[in-house]
Structures are given as structure tokens and as C-alpha cells.
Amino acid sequence: MQLRISIQDGTPIYQQIVEQVKYLVAAGRLKLGDDIPPIRVLAEQLRINPNTVARAYLELEREGIFTMRQGFGTKLAQVKVLLTRREKLRLLAEPADRLLTHAHHLDVSLDEVIALLRERDAAMQPKSSQ
Amino acid sequence: MSHGGTSGWQTPIGAMLWEIWGRRKVNFAFHTIALMVSLFCVRWIQHGTNQVVERVLVMVMLSCFLGAYFDLLTCFGYIEADARKIQLGYPARLLLKPVSTLRLVLVPMLVGGAIVATVLLIWNQYILQPLAHTSALNPYWLGAIVVSFFWWMQALAWSLPLMPGRSLIMLIVALIHLGVGILPLLPNSLSGWQWLILVVLLVSAVLTAWTGLGLMRQGKWDGPSRLNLFWNRWPSFHTTGMRGKFGSAFAGQFWLEWRRQGLILPGITSGIMFVILPLIFLVNQQSGVPAQGADFVKILLILTLLVPLVISSMMGATIARFDQLQASNALPVYIGARPITNGGLVIAKLAMALASSALTWLTVLVVAAFWLVVLQRHWLISLIPDVSPFHVVTTAIGCVPILLLLILYTWKNLVAGIGAGLTGRRWVVGIFTGWKAASAIALVGLFTAAKFNSDFQAALLHWLPELFFVALVAKVAVAFAIFSRGLRQNVITSGCVGWIACGWLAAGFFVTGYAGLVCRAMRHSDLWLPITLGGFLILPLPDLAIAPLALTWNRHR
Amino acid sequence: MKSTLIKFPSPSSAEAIIAVSGLSRQFGTKKALNEVSIFVPRGSVLGFVGENGAGKTTLIKHLLGSLKAMTGSVRVFGLDPVLDPVGVLSRVGYLSERRDLPGWMRVGEFIRYTQAFYPGWDERYASQLLDQFQLDPVQKIKTLSQGQQAKTGLLAALAYRPELLILDEPSSGLDPVVRRDILEAIIRTVADEGRTVLFSSHLLDEVERVADHVVMLHQGRVVLNGRTEEVRAGHISALLAFAQPPGASPVLLGAHAVTGFGSEWRVLFGGSRTDLVTAAALIGARVVEERTPTLDEILVARAGGKGS
Q1: What is the rounded average pLDDT of the residues B213-234?
Q2: B392-415 and B494-522 are packed helices; what angle lies between their axes, rounded to 10 degrees?
Q3: pTM for the full model?
Q4: Closest approach of chain B CAs to the CA of C60, in angstroms?
Q5: Distance CA B123, CA B138 (A)
């Protein structure tokens, strides 16, 4: 499970982990039943506080994406369920908010934003993934 | 480099000199004061006084001279610890300046040498000569020898960084100078060559310094040399660096103290013994005094005994140090952060001092035996009946308690000032040294007064037991007060108090018993009581009691 | 100047491993610490930040008993480190800023010496660290590089698994590779149940990654004190646009730093977004851009700025 943490980002680290995991699940790179690294291992790998990782895992378990179980002292989590369409849309809400805030600051109207989106989508066509 | 227009201080030489002046103003002031005091003492003596005062003043002057002069030597030595505190050597920052190596070498050497020689001549002219009433040694010769020694110390300190055994080489060079220095005293054919030898020494000192500093500047000594690497790895064949572990915190701390300081006293003592004993025999041979004489044996004995005692009393302050190369006297972090009480730290030091004293006296015996055998003087042993009224074997066995007493006394010399040093404040050590010097001088004065004034002597001897008793009671009371304060403040465990108190009592009773035996054998039973009380009085108790409290003052600032 | 965002458990919390209350310390005329109060709960990672000379090392020295508390009180594990050094130090692992290792000892000797004082020393862990840090036990400490000395000191502090680990600038002067090793060792310490870490650092991205709580000292005072993400969330870095360019540097209530010129000024603001918009409106500006500042920016602003 490859995650990237950015300190410069305004979002708290645990939230970045949660979002990235959700994204990986949505993109299909994490499939149902996959093993997730234990808290300690991920913390060492990312060089962050294990409590932060624990918090992220707890959040993901609360949202039903992870199942934690005790096994030989370490907690193994398995991806339980794929995201529904509604959950995917919820994931996109954050980037959308940011785009809209930017647009508001730059004094760009909603219609112009939509037009821009269509334009960018067209430009991406040959490389678009499902 | 500046040319005219600016003041003389702006040249490299000027800058170097100004730096010496700037850093050592206090030392210069101290030296001037010592000089003034000594001059005053000389004038006083020349006005004519009685023997007692004269002795005292002489002591004062000698201590002033020795203290001030050695201080001066270190002042102009131009030696600093490098940034990583690996070695003492030439100040590394100056090596990068646009100044030629020859200049870097000559400026401190010439300036230092000139000042050292001049000051010595001043002292000699105005103070030492009027006192000694003799001119056994040509002052210029003495000055030249001192300068040569000074230059060699500088040369070695500058050119052998990181070299193992550098101290040993310095000791050998110092001994060579001692040997050359007393050449004029020996009536043999070498004396004609003395000035030539001296010139050779001086020139070779400059050349060594120049070459060594030049090599250092070229970076030859930047990393550890092959010799250095070999030396550092040498123990690896019997230890991989991780031997069996220590049994307790005390064992670990004792090991640290031993490694740092344990071998200093035995090392210096055996080094000096290796030189002094054959010298005595040599001088004895030269001067034609019959070696069979009992006098000669007595002198030999006294000198042999004196060396460790004198050195240990000079070493008083060093026992309190934890790490020599550290700039401040504060407790090093790697010791202060350990879960050990201050009492535990002190006990480790005391134990180390005891072991060191024991080893010192053992080496004295070994070295003396060695020289006796080598120089084939073992017939000296047959002289023993002349000296002592007992059989040889009895004397030998009877000397064992004397050996123990000597060990005890050496130990006392080492640890007497431990409280002052452990405070970690220079001014406390200064006050303590001054106090010690003053009381030594007072003691000499008292002794001399007793010797020359028979009334005073009689009164002193009459009241001696009472005086001792009062002093002893005061000592025990003070120690008790300090110990209880220490226990209250949780700086020392009752176990440590037990060890110190029981040790004091045991040593005291040992002195009592042995003194009793000796007094009975010598039929001087009236001396037994003063000796006993004196024994208890000499052994340190409040000094040791205050040590943990002093360390607290250092550890928690 | 009062400290904001105090979210620590109260002084009466039983789980406060470190309880510093009203601590002040003066060296001559300089006030190194000024009414500092900090409570560190068990199992947390506390990051100390602040500019050089802000008082971090002084505070750490108080925790170890190297300095006596002149005013105020210091309690570690509920004990006074000056009155009971053994009780405190036997459970604390310490790495000082200058490492302060005995240069004359070999690495192996130093480890053996340290081991003598701690009954809870884990030999297997120690040799594991020795391998991992690639330290040669026969080498003399004075010939080690800075990174190796830091690793030696860290090994000696970790091997007996202390309840409290205090690190003063563990990464200062070290290359990124060594820093990574040290950070991983710290994280592994934290992952063990119930162990607390307190470290001071100039490398704020490390502090953000690893620390639960951040305490910022400035000129001996506690300026910030709270959970890491809350500290960040409590500040905004915004770009203000003025209709009329203000003549001089505009004064915004609640701002810690204001830079820029003409009609566009960047501010670092302490408070919520609504507060910012209100305050900006008061001086005739509108918020053009906003983002969450990094801890670095917050520190520089609060240290350099006039503060609230």
C-alpha cells in the first residue's frame, strides 16, 4: 500500500491517509480481502506518529472500509467493501470545494468553471482511465 | 599584512601577541602580585628577623615562585584544545591565516622563550639569589635549560597530534632536560660539552616544531595515522569492545574513575622512581661518600618515601575532576544523567583513590627492588640491622603495617580536597588552595617556633593531647551535622554514610593498634595518646561528608 | 501575552508524566524561562519548537535536575528530579544537544558503562541497534562523526526502554540518512505501549509528522501549546487585497505577521475564517486567497512578529 504524506498540505495527516486509502479503494488498487500493513509498520514506513496512523485506521473502520481483527498481537485489517457511487461522489466533494473556493477568489463564475471542466476533460480523453 | 599608517598591532605578529595579552590579563596580574609579595618578603628578611618568620617567608616566596612561574609557562605555551576536543595543540584557526609556518612557529617560541627566561632571571636576581646565598647554578644556564624545555614542550605539543603515547615522549624529553641540567654539577668530562648540547637541543626544538607544524598544515595529521589506527584497534584481540557487563552501578562508576585517573599517580611515581633512584646512586658514586653508610640508606629511604607523598598532595585537586578535556568543571552529562546518587559518585572516587594509592606503593616497592637488583646493591639489605633494632624478617613483616599507613596517608592526600573540587566552581577551589597553603605555612611556622623556642615547645607538648581531643570532638560533630544534612536532602544513602564512617573508624583503630605496639616496643608509652588522637584527626571525615553536598551544588545548578 | 489553545489535560490529571508549573529561570539579567507551565500525558509525543535561545534546552535541563527550579515546580513521574535524581533518571533516556559523550571511551565501553546503571537493559535490543546503526564497538568516540555520535547517544538512551525519552535536537547537524534512522528509532519507541517522548527540534516537518502535541517557546514564554493539527488549523495564511493601498504596513487585529506592499498583503492570522473576514473588512480589505500555514510559517511569524 503506497501512500504519500505531505506536510505542506493543509489537511491533517490522518485525514490524508483516510482519503488516500479511500481513493485506492475507489480506483480498485485495494481489493476486498487485501491485507493492510499493521499500524506500527505503516508508521515506520511513512515516518509519522503511530497514533496518527491508529486514528486513521479507526476512522476507516468507523466508515466501514477496514475490518480490524486481532491476530498474534498485530491487528490485521481487510478491505471489506467497495465504495458505492454515493461514497465516490463524497470523495470528490473536497477537491470540488477547493476548486470552487479558488474560482470564487479569482472571480470566475460557475458557468465558466463548468466550461473549463469540459475543456480539460476533452484534453484528457486519450489518457482517461474508466 | 599592513604597511605603515596603522599601529604595530595590526601585523600578524602583533595580532598574536595581543591575543595572548587579551586572554591572560588575569594571569599577568596574578604573576605581578606574586612578584611584589616575594620582593616584599625578601626586603623583610634582609632587614633581619628571627628564624621563625624567616622560614615562613621563605615558604611563602617559594610557593609564589612555583605557582606563578608554572602558570607563566602554560600561558605562553600557545596550546589549545581543538574544536572537537580531541587533542591539545597549536590553535587550528591560525593555520589558515596567510602567515608562513616559520613565523607561526617562531613568534610564540621567541616571545615565550624571551619572557620565560627574562622572568626567571628577574626572580633569580632579586629573590632567589639573596635568599640562597649561593650560586651553585649559573642562572643563565638555568634559564637556557628552562627555555629549551619550554620549546621542546611546545614543539611536541604542536607536532604530534593524535599520536598515542605523546605524554610518554614528553616525559622522556623532560627527563633528558633534567639530566642535561644537572650536568654542570657532576664533576666529569661531559661538563665541557654542556653548552654545545644545549644549543643542539634548542635548535632541534625549533626544527621539530617547524617540520611538525608544516606537516600539520599540509593536512598530514588530519586523519588518524596508521600508528594511531593500529593503536586504537590493538585491544580488539582480547575485547570486542563488549566484554562481560558490570555487576552494579558502583562497579561501572569505579571503572570509569579508574580509567580516567587511576594510573596517574602510579605512573608518575614509577616514572620518577625510574629516574631518581639511579641518579642517587650515580651522585653517590661521584661524590665519593661511602655507599656502605647508614646515612646513605636513610637518605634513600626518605627520598623513596617522599616522592609519592609529595606528588599525591600536589594532585589533590585532580581527583575531583571527571573529564580532563572539558572546559568547565561542571558534571559531564553522561555521568550526571545516570541514576546514581551523589554519594555513590563520591564513593566511587574514594575507592579509586584507595586502589590508586595501593598500586603506587606497590610500584615503588617493585621499582626499588628492580634498581637494587640491577645496580647490584642488594647488599643494602644487609644494612638493615644497622637501621632498625629488629631482625630482618621481623622488620620486613613490621613494614607491612607501615606500608598500609603510607597507602592510607597517600589516599588522604588525594581525597582531602575532594569537596572543594566537586563543587565545580573555580573560585571555591582557589579559596581552598589558598586555605591549604596558608595552613601549611602556619604549620611550618608553628613547627619552627617550637623547634627554636623551647618554652613554646614544652607548652605545646604539654597541651597537645587536650588540643587534639578538642579538635577531634569538633571534627566528629561537624561530620555528624553534615552527614545528617546529606541524609535529609537525600544526597547520600545511609549505606554510603556507613561505609565512610566505618572506614574512618577502622583506619583510626588500625593506627591506634599499630601505634600502641610500636610505642610499647620503643618504650615511649606517653606518646601513644597523642599519636592515636592525631591519627583520627588526620584521617578525613568531614571532608568526605561534605563531598556529596558539594556535588549536589554542582549537579543541580 | 497569554498562551492560546491549551488543550492538555488539567494539572490534576493522574497521567501527567511531566508537570511543570509556573517555572521561571533567570541567568543574570536574562530571563531564560518566564512562567512556563506544561503538562505532558503518558504516551504522547511532545514537540518543542522555538528559535535558538528560546529556552528549550533550559527547560529540558530542569526536567533532568541539571537545573534547580528557582520559582515554580517541576515534577517528572510525580517526583522532583532534584530531590530524587535516581527515581527520575532511572526511567528517563536522554540525548543532549551537543551529545556530550566521553571522547576517550570506545563505543563498546560506553555501552557497557551505561548498562551498569539500568537493571532493565535489553541486551538483544542493544546489539540489534548496534547493527542497525552500523556502529563499531572498538572505535573511540572522539573519532566518530557527528551522526555516529548522535546514534551512539541514542542507542545508550533507548536500550533500557525508558518510560520517558527526552531528546534535545536529535537531528541537528545530521545528514538526511541519519535523520531517517533516528526518526524511525523514535517512532518505534512511541509504538511501544505507554512510552512518552519529548523532543525539541528545528526541523518542523519532523515535528509535524511525529509529534502529537506542539509547544512553542519564544523568549522563555509558552506561545503555543496544543495538538499539532489544531495548532495548524487555528491559523490561516491569507492574501488580502486592499481597495486603497494603505500607506504603511496595515495593522490587522489578530495577525501575527504582515508582509507585502502596495495593495496586496500576506498575513498570518490566528483564529477562524470568519474572524479573519471580519477583521479584514474592518480595515477595508478582502480575502483573496487562503490556506493552512505550515508549522514553519506559524513559528517564524509568532517568533518574529509582535504577537498578540
Answers
A1: 69
A2: 140
A3: 0.79
A4: 12
A5: 14
